[in-house]
Amino acid sequence: MKIRGRVWEYGDDVNTDVIFPGKYTYTLRTPEEIAAHALEDLDPGFAANIQPGDIIVAGKNWGNGSSREQAVTSLKYAGVGAVIAVSFARIWYRNAINNGLPAIASPEAVAALKRGDVITVDLDAGKIIAPAGEFGFPPFPPSLQAILADGGLIEHVKKGLRRQ
After folding, report:
1. 151 in a domain, yes or no?
2. Residue 35 sits in which domain range?
3. What's the total number of domains in the chain?
4. What is the CATH number of the domain that holds 71?
5. Tens place of pLDDT for every residue, the chain, 164 residues?
């Protein structure tokens, strides 16, 4: 699977309340409503200007904070194709995979990529192709590749049940 998009660059320790403001947690219901508020406190133009497939590039500890799934939902439904970071908060990483949003740890790529770069992420080959060069990352294990290919864990389980 390949993802191609523009880079949106952010720093270290971006927490779940910054990704999706907690004040909306119990008032917004649909993924589209949630997506409209993605990163609004950090980058007010993000939700209005993101294009399908665009890629977030961030520093260390992306997604720390609460286990709130809206932090992933907001990005996925806004159109984010993948998140590349130096490192991820463990719960956010698992929520991303469970929701079909690739989360890739690649400190070398993060150091080289710039906002606005158009890059390609080849999930099968474990490669990020950018103006600054190519950067490798360990490909996802087959079980996670299947979840991502199916669009998330729920769809993956449904697909398995349909085969029975």
Report:
1. no
2. 2-139
3. 1
4. 3.20.19.10
5. 999 999 999 999 999 999 999 899 889 989 999 999 999 999 999 999 999 999 999 999 999 998 888 999 999 999 999 999 999 999 999 999 999 999 999 999 999 999 999 999 999 999 999 999 999 999 999 999 999 999 999 999 998 777 76
CB-based burial of residue 51 (10 Å sphere; 0-12 exposed, 13-18 middle, 19+ buried)?
exposed
Burial class (CB in 10 A: 0-12, 13-18, 19+), 139: middle
Decide if 163 is inside a domain: no
Give yes or no for a contact between 110 and 58, defined as CB atoms under 8 angstroms apart: yes
Residue 153 lies in a domain: no
